[in-house]
Amino acid sequence: MTTQDARLFDLGYRSYDGPREAPARAILTLAVFTAMRVLGLGRGARHKVLPAITLAIAYLPALTSVMFSAILDDLAVDDLISYGEYMFIIGSALALFAALVAPEALCPDRRSGMLGLYLAGPLDRNRYLVAKGAGVLAVMLLITVGPLLFMLLANTLAGFGPSAGEMPKLLLQILAAGTATALLYASLSMAISSFTTRRAAAAVGVVLTVVLPVTVVRTAIDSAGAPEELDLFSFAFVASELAYRIFGEEADDGEPIEMLSTLVVTGGLAAAILAGAVVCWLRYRRIEAFR
Amino acid sequence: MSDSSTPVISARGVVKHYGSTVALAGLDADIGPGITGLLGSNGAGKTTFISLVLGLRSRNDGELVVLGRDPQTAGIEVRARIGYAPEHHDLPAELAASDFVRHLAEMHRLPRRAAVQRANDALWLVGLGEERFRPVGTMSTGQRQRVKLASAIAHDPELVLLDEPTDGLDPMQRTEMLALIRRIGTEFGMHIVLSSHHLEEAERICDAVVIVEGGVVVHAGTLADVRRGPEGLVIEVDARADELASILAARGFDVTVDGDVLLLDSADAAYDIVRDAVAELEVGLRRLAPRGRTLEDVYMGVGA
What pLDDT does residue B118 have? Predict the structure, then answer.
């Protein structure tokens, strides 16, 4: 007969004397948690439907382009969707995704009282917003950078990719265009979401903010002779125009934004990002989180 | 961690006002160690005081030290060592209890694996082990209260703030919850502040109480101090209380009469004298006991 040392495997609740992370770790934890929740990960199937559909819409042009390049033998590089064009094509998917992401990231916390619980832990309002912003930005990058990287990979495999020497530059261009676009949508949608606890209301607000100014300012420019600079309020077009310029392409659609210098377009985009962030920050300074 | 006699929370002249409304008007209190009841009616200033302890609001005047630090300047460090269960029951509905508790444990600096383990341990401790994978939204009020308690203790804080933890519970659940809080406070070395307007809850499980009214502390001390009350006897007879009072006054006692109840200022040698006086008057003696008081006596006294 053999003998074994007795062991207790379930000690139940007891004091914790193990390691603890740095207080700043809470920011990363919340950012990851936010990104996962927005994408429906770890949640029921119905929470995954909208993100999946929107991601599918964003990746569909890249997938189609890749399929054509694989099937058709006599295809030339110019027949494929260009990287600058891609941002323009998925503009509606971007707006839809932005309308989904930030409201889901911010509104339920205020509605359910989670904001108060977070702020009763090792976070303050600024750190909370940094964490939420990082989570929203990470998810937005999935749709702004992800499809372009996918297209680059597929094009390269199909023999339409850049040369080895051009690859780093193209990667940087993809990152720059994708990040600028993601920052714009993240900032604007977070600012709008900070005004309501209802996701649906925030989503409608985001879509209107992206769509409505285009109609208004372009009517003003075309009909009333307003300066072209007013087109900087056509946020979606500012982002796609900058993307075109980052990739060294031209939209050539005759839109007012195309008349502006790259410096002005970049400044307009930066100002919109900054304005969204400041509005959101000011709103959260005033929100009563403790009840 | 503080030693066994150092207050966990020390407030001196704490003032907080919202515009022209004064919420705290120079609050002085030493709270902890052990389990302390923070009592007071709605609007007395309890929630404002808790928000100052957590460093979520800034005070207008006074000094406040929590776990050796000023929460106004070291809020993040202080809050990392505190567990807090709010009064409201609105928790993320579709999140499983284990995910909710684990997430808040991670937010309080526990590594992922430790957070998972301790979330499970805490939920088993509060009696939700079998239910831990259920979405919070499908749980009863009693279960949600337990989830909140589990989330407040999972990261093993030094101080736990519980805001109305028995709100919405039936008598049986309330008894179980109070026993659980008592166990957490005594077995696991956490200091607990129980904010409540249920006096009997504080009497059942607290070591000390702080009663707040109108933004100031009107009574603070251990429950033993509260119960001890003034020296003397309480006598209740079924008739002729005034005549009995006259007899006792003639024997040198200071007597107060309130209906059929007499209060004597001293108990020394009084029992035999009372017995003889009652026999002499031939009245029925309903009660003869040392003077004492309940928390309700104190509360009603200060509230009057």
Answer: 94
